[in-house]
Design goal:
Length: 138
């Protein structure tokens, strides 16, 4: 059960770019090209927060490597879907509201990493509410 919690935490951080709309916005601006693959992987997935979180995973080496691998696969799927499907979804949303709620979700994830007691589902709830608000105030 501990491994599942660690995978969830790391996958959330790794896939954050796909969940908060930045990947979709970058895809719309033409940033997603094969020559930018290395930069995109660092920019949207393997940032300092994800690396520090991976360092702080608990368990044996095998458990930590498995958790990191599984989180990476989940995050990659999130980013790929955001780059493909997200660009179509953005045409139906108010991007200003999505940017604000995405920023709030990033702050909440930072607070969770710092150890402040906030429900793990709070960032997902914030993004969900941001999407709903973005649809309403289009």
């Amino acid at each position: 059960m501990k491994t599942v919690k660690q995978v969830n935490k790391l996958a959330t951080i790794l896939g954050l770019g796909g969940m908060n709309g930045t990947v979709s916005i970058a895809a719309l601006s033409g940033l997603f090209r094969p020559e930018n693959a290395f930069i995109l992987s660092i920019l949207f997935m393997a940032g300092p927060g994800a690396i520090v979180t991976a360092f702080l995973l608990e368990g044996t080496i095998k458990q930590r490597m498995f958790a990191a691998l599984l989180a990476g696969i989940i995050a990659t799927i999130i980013v790929v879907l955001a780059a493909g499907i997200g660009t179509k979804a953005l045409s139906f949303l108010n991007l200003n509201i999505l940017k604000i709620t995405g920023g709030i979700a990033v702050l909440v994830i930072g607070l969770i990493i710092m150890g402040i007691k906030i429900p793990d589902k709070a960032p997902l709830l914030i993004i969900g509410l941001g999407i709903i608000a973005g649809l309403i105030w289009r």
